[in-house]
Amino acid sequence: MGLATTGAATLPAFISCKPKKDEKVVVTQDKDTSKREVLKKYSPKAKKLVNEATCIDMLGTYGDWFTQRGGMSLEQCWSTKPNSFTEEDYKFVTSCGINIFGWGNMVPTFEGMLEFMALQNGIIASNPDYFERIDTKEKLKNINTSNKIGMLITNQESSQFRTVYDVDLFYHLGLRVSQITYNGENRLGCGAFVDTDTGLTDYGREIIKRMNEIGMAIDVSHCGDKTTMGAIEASTKPVLVTHGACRAIAKGVARAKTDEAIKAIAKTGGVVGIPILRFMIREKEPVNFNHFLDHIDHVVQITGIEHVGIGSDQGLYTEDYGNKAWRKNRLDNAPAKYQVHTNEDYLLTIEGLNHPYRTYDIAEGLIKRGYKDDHIKMVLGDNFKRVLGKIFNH
Taking the complete model, does pTM exceed 0.90, yes or no? Predict the structure, then answer.
């Protein structure tokens, strides 16, 4: 998933969370700002596990199109005025339990990606007390004790690489994860929505070789099956699915990964991040929290606990905070290949996980399923922390 709106929450392109000009988005869910009251409902054990783990959402951000400040959404405010991020904003984001956000977008051009990197780096540089760009092993290691919000800059495309030398350029600007393809075809290979996946190209192999050498992570979340396997075979370092489900459970869903691919990713040392999108988790309604947990169980069963994590594909405030008519319009206009389905409320994400504090709910769910404490912390983010440490060179 991902959208082509600079700085916005990482949401599906067909339902880009950015409101159209003059479009008023009315919040329908309760946005209680009393963090202390919200956190009371979670068990001491869940809170302890979230606090001890390095919690990583490999595709998500704190972006918020629904809370208004000075006539603009918070996302618009933060994007246009980078130093407008306040101490209260910081306290809210850190209370949600996520240490590192995989700040991903879908930017398909060289120029667009330069602009995206400038904006993200500007926000981080303008708020040094609040943010840390996660671009070295040392920062990855120390993010828990720094008390900062870790921002891992990623892209859901690799068309920004006009030549192999551009891998170096974007690496030095802070890009640390790049998806080989989005849904369609590019110079590297084919996405999941291409009718005939011809696999990884020779140019794709060149790019992967340089990404391996320089220390940039390879993401195959949106790749077609043949391109996915080609990228895995070409890489000498772990390969990631930052946000993708299991096709063995979500049968027939193009954006879900086969068991063959998941096992191959595990053999590289890679990790699969499970999203909270209804249509990614199950091929039809109803969809609930237990179905999400089933995907975690499945990856564990076929590869081991070391190879699963979280990639929500949403901001802290998910699209479900928009009013019903707004949600319906986005889902009604979704491309058919997304195989979108929803309930009578036109929700995009899974109830119980479609709010800012979902990391605590995931911890509670894994506790109830009998996972060991250390294993829960691995799922919450320690697995992605480990694998990124292996990929990063610095």
Answer: yes
